[in-house]
Design goal:
Layout: H1 17-25, H2 30-37, H3 41-50, H4 58-83, H5 88-96, H6 99-108, H7 116-143, H8 148-155, H9 159-168
Helix pairs in contact: 1-3, 4-5, 4-6, 5-6, 7-9, 8-9
């Protein structure tokens, strides 16, 4: 008797012995095959034996899963390292545990560790691109009529920072308004 019904739409079409063997050899457990096929545990075992499947022990399955998990982690860390410019310290925090383990996993996944200088260059290029995008956005808003204090408040920057970013974007500044009493003409004596 199968107490857990199989998930909807996840059933193996005919649950043939060769289909079950293929899934088992690719890493599925007998319990997973039972859940997916809707067959009983004994039926799944019988069909695996019919197909001539060499059965694994529980420790072999755990070891195989650990190896797959390690390979998946190494691939994910390599992707973070190469595509997002993460450091070994950040990889350690993302699941490797230590910088040394992160380095080892990175090499296992086919990655090549960078020097500190290379990492800083990648980071500064990304920051530069973000700063240029922000400058262009501020320039467009300023040229559309927004004031510098208004932009500073909206983007949570100081007025000086907004001025600096506008200047870096090559913005032609409007003349400053003089607030306060109007100045009269000076009399010459």
């Amino acid at each position: 008797m199968n107490p857990n019904p199989p998930p909807a739409g996840a059933e193996i079409k005919a649950a043939t012995a060769s289909d079950l063997r293929e899934r088992y050899e690719s890493g599925a457990t007998v319990a997973q095959l039972v859940a997916v096929s809707g067959l009983s545990y004994g039926t799944v075992l019988n069909r695996l034996h019919e197909a001539g499947t060499v059965m694994r022990t529980s420790w072999q399955t755990r070891r195989m899963r650990d190896l797959q998990a390690r390979q998946n982690l190494a691939a994910r860390l390599r992707r973070l390292y190469e595509q997002h410019g993460a450091t070994l310290t950040e990889l350690a925090a993302a699941g490797a545990g230590t910088r040394r383990a992160a380095r080892r996993l990175l090499i296992e996944a086919g990655g090549a560790p960078r020097t500190t200088r290379e990492t800083l260059r990648i980071r500064s290029a990304a920051e530069r691109a973000a700063r240029e995008e922000l400058s262009a956005s501020l320039r467009a808003r300023y040229e559309a009529g927004a004031s510098v204090p208004g932009l500073a408040k909206e983007f949570s920057y100081s007025v000086a920072t907004v001025y600096r970013l506008l200047h870096q974007a090559g913005t032609r500044m409007r003349p400053q308004h003089r607030h306060g009493p109007a100045r009269g003409t000076r009399k010459r004596s």
